[in-house]
Inverse folding.
């Protein structure tokens, strides 16, 4: 008997099962307790990736999806959901770090194709709040703070809605209506500008 026959070849690591964005949205919408949608989760993940302070997954997963998904057992549907979220987090990071494709946010759209940025913006702000003290010096920098309003101007959780609407009167409303088009470029800029704070080298 040859020595090679005594040992079994190691099995390849099991590929993590994931969902499409459409299936994930459907599953999240079917939960009894209100769950964030895919666009809100995507904004949340984008803020974490570009954040001036690295936040480990064990600290950011529960605030967005809860204990049931964060600690889901292997083989459960909740584990598949968790895998899908981690996959998207890694995808955003790889894309912003020089991947072959440009970063593309996941937006909600109406049946007529109108882009709705509110949920993405709410998720982004929620992600910022995980390390808001680290964000504050950068927000006060006009070169970062002003472009950032293209996202935060759509956020419905930062201030009461009546105050937000008053702040958006006049030309600002028209500008923000098209701001979804510049969000990919803005996220890429934030990733590069905040890399020094994260001690990350952008190649």
């Amino acid at each position: 008997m040859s020595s090679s026959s005594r040992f079994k070849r190691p099995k390849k690591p099991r590929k993590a099962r994931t969902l499409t964005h459409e299936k994930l949205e459907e599953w999240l919408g079917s939960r009894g307790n209100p769950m964030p949608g895919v666009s809100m989760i995507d904004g949340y993940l984008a803020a974490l990736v570009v954040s001036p302070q690295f936040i480990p997954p064990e600290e950011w997963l529960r605030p967005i999806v809860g204990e049931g998904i964060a600690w889901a057992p292997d083989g459960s549907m909740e584990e598949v959901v968790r895998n899908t979220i981690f996959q998207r987090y890694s995808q955003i990071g790889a894309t912003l770090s020089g991947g072959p494709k440009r970063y593309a946010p996941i937006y909600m759209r109406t049946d007529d194709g109108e882009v709705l940025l509110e949920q993405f913006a709410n998720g982004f702000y929620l992600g910022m709040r995980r390390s808001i003290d680290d964000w504050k010096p950068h927000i006060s920098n006009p070169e970062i703070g002003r472009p950032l309003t293209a996202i935060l101007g759509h956020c419905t959780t930062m201030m009461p809605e009546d105050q937000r609407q008053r702040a958006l009167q006049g030309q600002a409303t028209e500008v923000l209506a098209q701001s979804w088009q510049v969000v990919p470029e803005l996220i890429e800029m934030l990733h590069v500008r905040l890399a020094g704070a994260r001690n990350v080298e952008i190649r």
Remarks:
- Strands lie at 108-109, 115-116.
